[in-house]
Each structure stands twice: as structure tokens, then as C-alpha cells.
Here is the input.
Amino acid sequence: MTQATLSKPQPNQMIQTKDAKSYAQADIQRIFALQQKKALELRLSTAKERIQKLKRLKAAIFQHKAEIQTALFADFRKSAREVDISEILPTIGEINDSIRHLKSWMKSIHVATPITLFGASSKIVYEPKGVCLVIAPWNYPFQLALAPLAAAIGAGNTVMLKPSEFTPNTAAVINKIVKSAFADEEVAVFEGDVSVSTALLEMPFDHIFFTGSTPVGKVVMAAAAKHLTTVTLELGGKSPTIIAEDADLKLAAQRIMWGKFLNAGQTCVAPDYVLIPKSSVDQFVQYAKEATEKYFASKEENFVNNGDFCRIINAKNFSRVTSYVDEAVKSGAKIAYGGKFESGQNFIAPTILVDVPKDARIMEDEIFGPLLPIITYDHLDDAVQLINSKPKPLALYVFTSSSRTAESVLKRTSSGGAVVNDVILHLVNSNLPFGGINHSGHGSYHGYFGFKAFSHERSVLKSPKFSLPTLMYPPYTNFVKYIVDTTTKWFV
Here is the structure.
């Protein structure tokens, strides 16, 4: 048996503070030290051993499926089917993709060697980064905790995982799943508030993977800079949707409404606002109403009783989102659909706003709620100009029947990802990197790109006993000059 043989998982035995939801700095340091030692061992782990760990994780997820559904309903009334579709299924998909391809991902890649290094061979070796910190958000609290975890495990790392304190029931189930599959030295979960995250960020991790808002992403990046720790930042921003004059309005409305109101709009790649020709607004709004009521089998006045439409995560975010509507309406916007709120339930009905001023706050902040502001344009160039006046978004959507129009929009804009004639679905394809750019994030993951995010690409050159560079060692004689001049001519 090799040094990297996996030990049988033991239950986590974390030293909790009296709060029972936060951890003493000493406990964080203790587990960090355990994982540093284990990380050295895991550098020698094989694909087979890592796949066994991924299979353990997958089995634990299925074993606790009902508890996951119950927890997410308790946290913000997310229906069991939406939990399956948006939390469990994508996580299992990521794990399965790693299981199928991990052996090939781990192989060294042999690359060409220039003539100046004649006789040498070159390759890229993928190595685990070491001890990794994963900080998960509250909007998809299960998927966005476990999918990065699976990528880190596949890459051969140890992980300290911090779920969101805003979804405590889901965090508890995540902890239970991890305890059933891993020992502290491999994976450890830290529940608790922002003080726990702050304490974790003081440690010299080998990599930090953070999903959340841009302001907090800046805090994480600043903390990582103190230790020169590499980071993957999955952030957000205002993802625009352009509807061109030749678009199929009914199709566009159906797909935009699904993406906008999934998870009550609390999705980092949700269509944040729509740019549409003035002449198409009324018809689009009508199609949007029809699609929304069909999806949720509810008329506008009955949405509060709908079991498939989840709630805003907490009172603070409820107040923030509803304030966007109040401020926009005072500035001249009109509610074309929805606009019903229930503060006692943190309920905000699917809402469409028209005649929205471009300088309204709803057009500046990421909404993260079931509000869809509609902005009109006279020329497509105006829509492109508006998008380019804002920070680069995480996603961009364009609806058009013209490939030329789609390509024109994509070439003249920048975003983390883009979809033509649909929304959100690019993140389902594990063969595509998912991530942002500048304000919307740094780095990417999913599938092979997740493996790379948690791996160090190490350059390895093997030099023979004799190589051309040895002829260029000092002293710099005329012979050395001849060799240099001759070699230089090869590149002319």
C-alpha cells in the first residue's frame, strides 16, 4: 500500500464554542494543521483513490436527499422539485463528470520543446494546490458549496468549507453529509456567522474559492493578498438581455421569465434587465404575463399561495429589493405586472417594470430578486453602449433570429459567459468554463475547468546529459558567439 492510501473516514470532532455555530481560532488552526499534513500525503493520491472519495460524497448526498429538500424549504421555502433541479442534480452532474474524466485530466501533458533546448523533453503536470477554503453563498447554498468541494477533491486537495449562515438548515445538512464521508483532515465544515469567515481568511490557504457578491469578493481578495493566496471569485453583476427587432418575442418571453423567476430571481446569472425596441414592449409584456402564470399555475393575485415560488432569503434582502420598486416608481417607472409584497413571508411576486429611468437604483445594483426592469432602445447600438457603460457582467443574453446580429453583439461586448436565444443554460454544460470577468469574477470552474482551478500547472523540463545550452556557458569565447549567432539565424 502506498503512502497515499485513503484511511477509513472518521466522524468529525470539532471543538465548538459555546455559540455552537462558531469556532474558536484555535480550532481553525488545529484543523488547518491537520489538513496541511494530509495535503502532503494526498499529492501522491491516484485517480482511483480520488474517485472513491467522490463516490462517497455522491452516496452521502443521495442518502440525505430528503433532508436537503426539507432544509431548503425551511430556509426560504424552496420547493422539492426546484431543489432537485437547481441544487441536487447539478451537483451530482459535476461529481459524475469528474468520476468519468478524472483519470484523463490527471495525466501529464507533453508539449513541444524548442530547438534551442534540443534533446530535452517538456511536460505540464497537474498537482493539488494543497489546503483550500471554499466559501459558499446562500442563494444556491447546497450546489455552490458541494460542486466546488467536488472539484477540489478531484484535484487532490483538502478542504475547509464555510456554508452561508443565512441558510442554517442547509448548512447543518451539509455538515452532516461531510461528516458521514470524510475525516477532518480531508474535509471540514465550519458553520457560523461572518466572524467565522473572517477567522478562516486569516489562515494561509493554498487556494480560496469564493462565491458571493462583488463587495465581499474584494474583501476576500484583499485577505488572500496578505498570503499571496490564489483565488477563484465567482461574483455577479447586472446580466443584461437584449431582444433584437427580429427576435421571436413569445419564445424570448418564455425563456426570460423562467430564468428570471427561478429561485425568485436570486440567481447570479438571472436576466437582470431587458433591453428591447419600443415597438415590442407591449407584446413582450403580454407574453411574459402568460408565460409566468403558466409556469406557476397561478394568476397574479394568487402567487403568494404558490408552493413552487420560493421566498426572499431574509427580511433585510426583502427590504432591499422592495425599495428598488418604490424608488423606481417614484422616478416615473410603471408596474406592468406584479408588485405584490408580503413582508411577513418575505414574499415578492414576479414583477415587471416599464418606463424605468436609466439612472434608477434598480439599474445600478444587482437586483437578486423577482423584478424585471425593461429599458427601451431606438437602435441596437444604443443597447450595446448602455451595456458597455456598466461593469462587465457575469452573463449576457441576446435574442435574435440573425446570426450576424448575435455575433455583432458578442464581439462588441464583454461578459463572463453568453447565451444566444436562451438564458442561464450555459452553466449546465460542464464542457464550458463558468466564471466572470473583472467585477463579475476571476477564474472559472465546472468540469475540467474546476479541476484546473484547484490544480497547479507545474512545468517540468527534463534535460539530457548533453544539450545545446551547455555550449553557451561562459567564458563567452568566439565559439560561443558563433553558436549564438547560428542559433539566432534559425529564428529569422
